[in-house]
Design brief:
By secondary structure, the chain is of the alpha/beta class. It has two domains: about 200 residues, Ribonuclease H-like superfamily/Ribonuclease H (Nucleotidyltransferase, domain 5, 2-Layer Sandwich); about 90 residues, no CATH class. The strands form three sheets. It has a five-stranded mixed beta sheet, with helices on both faces. The chain has a five-stranded antiparallel beta sheet with strand order 9-10-8-11-12. A two-stranded parallel ribbon has the order 1-7. Helix 10 packs antiparallel against helix 11. The chain is globular and about 75 Å long.
Length: about 300
Amino acid sequence: MTEEALKKAVDFLKLSKQYRLIKRYEKPAFYQPDDGTLKCIGVFLDVKTTGSLVSEDKIIELGLVVFEYSDDGRLFRILEELNQYQDPDRAIPSNITELTGITDAMVAGKQLDKKIVFGYLNQADLIIAHQAASCRPHLEALGDDLPVKPWGCSLHEVPWSQEGLESIKLEYLAYRYGFFYEGHRASLNCLVGVHLLSQTLPRSQELVLKVLLDNSRALSFRLWVLGAPLTQKDILQSRRYCWESYGKYKAWFIELSAQKLLSECQYLWQEIYGYEASLPVEVIEAKNRFSKKAVLPEYWVSNPFQVEALIR
């Protein structure tokens, strides 16, 4: 079939509501023409590892894409791409090979060039990953010289479900935006991630990147429940508290927005403690979010006035 005939077939099928057409991803020459807007540098990053435990598992592939964007969420050009392998000095688990397509032979003798990788990250105004809570700790394990930069997460800092998208996997999101891609490479995942950032959310009609920028810049608060009675365990779990068994505290904690912090403190004082107990609150912002190494600023609150002063 000729290209012209194929185009006619596509146009014909688009007239029918019985079909949904998706197109293979193609890297665009640019997203927006240069209009003189002041631009920032973003780095979309993806790592593939031998497992999820940062203390034991190693990066076996790292990909990144450097791109230009404006403060209002518009994308301009893709500037650089990088894909590197790393030998983990152990056999790659079979389930990881099935998931990523990476074999022992592909990584044998390979090492990440930290100077190059960290050089790209050092120029970034924002580092984005689709699972930043996993990617950032694995990068931090590479060394203390990792540049301290603001981070964003395209998985959790874009309200996909509120916009009517049932899954947050890259492949599904790409499908819903009318394109598909094949291949496991980390750099391709990054290109797809950048492409999704250029889209418009279906309900709010906001640019995906603009929403991510707003959410990444907002402060959040990690509220700790110290010395809670064991009988309250099920209640705290039902309210989505998590248990921390290492680090600063061995206790229950939850991460909240500024809008929810006061009401949650009041709930704890009334229903868990029965009095206005002094509670530690850690302040999380883009530069320390998703980090396992950053020391978070901590404040203690024991009444509503202290909470209100903290969130202002």
